# Entry
Amino acid sequence: MSGNASRLSAINAITSGKDVTVEMPDPLSKIWASDVFNLAKMEQTLSKNAFKAMKKTVQTGAPLDPATADVVAAAMKDWALSKGAKFFSHIFYPMTNATAEKHDGFIVTNSDGHAITEFTGSLLIKGEPDGSSFPNGSLRMTNAARGYTAWDPTSPCYIMYTANGPTLMIPSVFMSWTGEALDKKIPLMRSNAAMNKAAHKVLSLMGETDIATLNSSCGAEQEYFLIDERFATSRPDVLLAGRTLFGAPPAKGQQFDDHYFGAIPERVQVFMQDFEDRLYKLGIPAKTHHNEVAPGQFEIAPYFESANIAADHQQLLMTVLKNTAKKHGLHALLHEKPFAGVNGSGKHVNWSVGNATQGNLLDPGHTPEENLNFLLFCGAVIRGVHLYGPLLRAVIASAANDHRLGANEAPPAILSVYLGDQLEKVFKDIQQGNLNPTESGGLMDLGLSEILTFTRDPGDRNRTSPFAFTGNRFEFRAVGSSQSVSGPLVAMNTMLADSLNWIAGKLEAAFDSGLDQTTGVIAVLKELMDKHGNVVFGGDGYSAEWHKMAVEERGLKNIPTTAEALPALMEDSVKDLFKNTGVLTPVELQSRYEVYSEQYILSIELEAKLVIEMATTSIYPAAMTYLAELGTSISGAAAMGIELDTGIAKKVAAEADAMMKVVATLGNAVEKHDFASTEAHMQFCAYEIRPLMDLVRSHADALEMTVANTVWPLPKYSEMLFIK
# Structure
């Protein structure tokens, strides 16, 4: 079937499809965490001593002895077998933003040749996948292949159902034979430990005596697009690059703002219910879903969880999202910018820190000026973002996310902190050496008797800020939709640990000098704001005035592309940050720079090759076919003495010729590999290859607007975004 015939056939099949079948969902109480081996199930199946040990490990990170691991493994195996599982898998998170898993059977044979099931503590604790075939940034050579997975008992095991049947999944860390972290989980757990240690210092100095283990928490808002699977299979760019490399803007996009929070299409509602039921069975607390800004774009937001579990659940959510969409004949796009000209997708990471004794330490309460612990922790965040803004930019850097950052649809590539009117006033007062009473937001009264009044929040929200305080947490809005949340969480936890250590040293000196608690806190925070207050900004982050002010007056960095962002990982201050906190060794940090740089280069080169292939084998032939049809019509009309306008034919010929000339230039650019450094190669990708790709696209999109609809081979934006 020709390209255009395939496209038109897909449209016909979708528009004449069967009615959506709606099934009543099971009640939440019946399905919640039914496929998770959590503490509740452990309490039912383990001995009292084993359960007590596991609970302590889960809640405080206390070590687990091998004997208890054997008991847990036996109970876990029995539970998994009762679910029909024949295999188990250590699931881990290499430096690819994806998940990895190696499946092993419970089956062994005895001396009589009979098959029996076996799952011991040693099998639960450790696995051994190949450690050389994952990106490792030169940590391991090809001939040095041994790598280990190790069970993370703080993240619950679960059953994953596929067409192959149920499998017991065991969340794990992944390390090399020589002990270096090859994954995203180990640094996250280390960063949380570093933050906990530093927070204990500050809270102890503040007179707290009963201090439970502190954890960072995360609630990630996941944005995504849905298109029909038949459209996706007709677009090589969507299948291989995750985004459209060509596509003229439709007459209607998002300019009417009618999709945002609009009525969810019935087919999508059915998908969402199925998707969320699967999440509930896996213990993932999906709380909110709605239409997003762009047509065809949606969002799901789970309730917050401890950062380590939230990161695992986020990876699992993306997997379930894609699989469930496919079941419903849909294709889920997690790319940050799958369609040009409409909003891209992010993954806003809501982050806070707290424990069972002091509560959420980023909750200001009703009188934030009196909440000294909150002021210290909030001040620590301000200092961290100011000192390590380039690091925060680096951990959300990717070829895909570059399409969002800096545009008027996502936070800019300048890292700043939004506090809101109330908190910004508190910290400005502190800079003056004072702690003054704050005002509440007052009552919202519309003057309508039937509408109840309610208390208004003390500050507005700022959707142009990349790092915004939103009531009792900070929202890191610049994270990309396809990215793991682990990298951003590692950076935030580690910068917080560093700032808390600095604050602890300053507080100790202040108290030793005889200052009382309140005066000492004000003195420390005044010094902090004098040094780092430039990062606080409450205005329009999209404005040209802010971009100029941020760089020229406040000394902040504007980092527009991944090519400029990733080298921040190699700055001495960042190396010292991770080394001093014990989160990453210099060698582990270097490996991440190499892996992420390589991924950036490979992503752009892949897209460039796809541009060349699609322009040459699909778009150019379509243009020539249409040109031939026009030529036949013009010749036929001339034979009858009718003179037709040849303007369209000339335009098609000119655009096709210009496109192929740029394609040739792009091909030569992709073949270039003699670069003096990785940085030079990334710069070439950002400022040579990408502009050439955009130029090819401009000619191709002009052709799409000119070539007859019946000839055009690729599904169009108006079809993919609006036909469901």
